[in-house]
Design goal:
single chain; about 120 residues; mainly alpha; two-stranded antiparallel sheet; 3 helices; 2 strands; about 40% helix
Amino acid sequence: MSKKIKVIIFGVLMLLTFLFFRKPALKIETVKITRGDIIESISASGEVDASEKADLTFQGSGKLAWVGVKEGDVVKKYQAIAKLDTFLLNASYQQAINTTLPLMPRPKKQKMMLKVILLMRL
């Protein structure tokens, strides 16, 4: 066989292979979009439960002075969600300072007074 015939046979085989093994064209369905009411709905019954829960604990007891979230709110890590009333705590602190301050030596007393003044500004 001549080189020309071999090339023609090879070309015909390639063409037949291409035609036989090609994938069919994808059929794409298009739909015109219109505005309207939803006609399908899903209903279910049951309970929804959080995947993560946390128990709240405080170092001491007392009345809540502020609550920053309500049930169902999403909270972030380290977000303040409540604050205890510090009135009684501050009164106890002041009483402790008033009873121990007169007993302290002068240099220590001055440092303590400075700390008290700085804390009162917060």
